[in-house]
Specification:
This protein is an alpha/beta fold. It has 12 helices and 13 strands.
């Protein structure tokens, strides 16, 4: 049986020497097939071409309200997302990238001076290390507002250790906002140690319900799905190996809020979005099940109320109600497959674009 050390070595070799650019990937699982939102295109255009060519992410990991934040990027690779977020957090923020592949980090570090000159400030640094061993790195507990990762957790041999490490590093009210690959069932043992399927971000993918269990075990009581898309395995050989397993790229947000409950409870609360977040004047797509229109009284469960009231989003909302009454389970809290089985109908829909909520399913109302 392949050990965790062997898997680490396999990933390092695949991303350090087997792949020379994103064009070498054999599936779309580890490469974002969506278009970039218009507001981010000028920022990406300022990033060095070599950094862009070594990008292997599966979705966009750019939540709003980043100015001045301290951000950690797990599995930063050549640094594309680090340099993108660097521009969004600004001179008053900081972005730290972690990766275990020296060849990828060499690309990221080689162009640090270039980006500092282009941006007008230097607010990034890169550390070599494993995302399962965050406690071994020089990072203070409860020191980050936001942790992101882009198609990296599936490559880890110990996903619970990753989640535990992230929770330890987040400030109260902070969040883990990340894109990754999930399966509609558990991947068989025989496939989980295939080096190519693992490097292509498929065989390490968690069954979605096992991910929810691990997240809750790590202390993230109510994981929220932001958006998802089905993945097509276009390589005939790899498609034959994976058989009937369906894979999805999905973006989740996990909040570091201790008082969150393990179900969506109804306390008769509501919120009103002020329309004050840049780029979202008419509505805020908080997650796949909460598209909150500006000025409208929007009923929410207790967990959603806390996520909005105890995070950086609070100044942009008015809050109605408290926790003095309880009316039972919030209607619509379900447990079916949360992902959409078909691709977006428009060609330019982003991978992580939140959609209006269906009547049931998902992690919340």
């Amino acid at each position: 049986m392949t050990s965790a050390t062997d898997l680490h070595r396999s990933v390092q070799e695949y991303y350090g020497s087997t792949l020379s650019s994103s064009a070498d990937l054999r599936t779309s699982a580890c490469c974002d097939a969506s278009s970039v939102p218009p507001a981010l295109r000028p920022l990406l255009a300022r990033i060095h071409p070599e950094v862009l060519s070594r990008y292997y992410g599966c979705g966009l990991v750019v939540p709003p309200l980043l100015e001045g934040l301290r951000v950690l990027d797990l599995g930063c690779g050549s640094g594309r997302d680090v340099y993108l977020l660097s521009q969004l957090v600004g001179a008053g923020g900081e972005v730290v990238g972690i990766d275990m592949t020296p060849e990828q980090l060499a690309v990221a570090r080689r162009h640090a001076d270039h980006h500092a000159e282009v941006f007008g400030y230097a607010n990034v640094r890169f550390l070599e290390g494993r995302i399962e061993q965050l406690e071994a790195l020089p990072l203070e507990p409860a020191s980050f507002d936001l942790v992101i990762s882009n198609c990296v957790v599936n490559l880890s041999a110990d996903k619970l250790a990753v989640l535990n490490g992230v929770r330890r590093l987040l400030k109260p009210g902070g969040e883990f906002f990340f894109a990754d690959v999930y399966a509609d069932r558990r991947v068989p043992e025989a496939l989980r140690h295939d080096p190519v399927l693992h490097g292509e971000c498929l065989s390490g993918a968690l069954y979605w319900n096992d991910f929810l269990r691990l997240a809750r075990l790590a202390g993230f009581a109510d994981p929220r799905l932001v958006g998802d898309r089905p993945l097509e395995i276009t390589d005939p050989e790899l498609a034959a190996r994976t058989g009937a397993i369906r894979f999805f790229s999905a973006t989740y947000r996990l909040f570091q809020i201790k008082a969150l409950e393990d179900a969506c409870e109804d306390h008769g609360q509501a919120v009103v979005y002020r329309g004050s977040i840049a780029g979202h004047p008419d509505a805020l797509p908080f997650d796949k099940h909460h598209h909150i229109e500006t000025g409208r009284v929007f009923p929410v469960c207790g967990n959603t109320f806390r996520m909005l009231a105890e995070s950086r989003l609070a100044p942009h909302f008015d809050f109605i109600g408290d926790f003095s009454r309880h009316y039972g389970l919030f209607e619509g809290c379900g447990s079916t497959l949360p992902f959409d089985a078909t691709a977006p109908t428009t060609a330019d829909a982003p991978a992580a674009a939140p959609a209006a909520a269906p009547a049931s399913g998902g992690s919340c109302c």
